[in-house]
Amino acid sequence: MPSVPVPPHQQRPAQRSPPTRRAVEDREPAANLLGEMARRKGPQTVAVMRIGLPGDRQPTRDELLVAASRAQLVRFRLPD
């Protein structure tokens, strides 16, 4: 019996790999991540996390390091 091609609308979607996640536990990378978030989204974004960062200005490096010790961060990356 010859194989019949499956119409595109009935084909299964390609298997996608799941998003990767990585816990950021060291203070330096966590401070970098918080600083990046404050620069991209504004200081109010990190202030709502209630880890001691100001919401009215960009946090200093020392403030980011202290806040990083209080935060538990996980970074998710979606596959390309």
3D structure, described in words:
The chain has 3 helices and 2 strands; from the N terminus they run βαααβ. The protein is an alpha+beta fold and 80 residues long. It has one domain. The protein has a two-stranded antiparallel sheet with strand order 1-2. The longest helix has 15 residues, at 27-41. The protein is elongated, with a radius of gyration of 21 Å.
**In angstroms, what is the radius of gyration?**
21 Å
Q: What count of structural domains?
A: 1
From the helix content, strand content and strand pairing, which structural class follows? alpha+beta
Rounded average pLDDT:
84
How far apart, in Å, are the first and last alpha carbons?
A: 39 Å
Number of helices: 3
Question: Which blocks of ≥5 consecutive residues have pLDDT under 50?
Answer: none
Q: What global shape is seen? A: elongated
Q: Describe the largest sheet.
A: 2 strands, antiparallel
What is the tally of beta strands? 2
In what order do the strands lie side by side in the largest sheet?
A: 1-2
Strand content: 5-15%
Share of helical residues: 25-40%
Q: Which H/E pattern describes the elements?
A: EHHHE
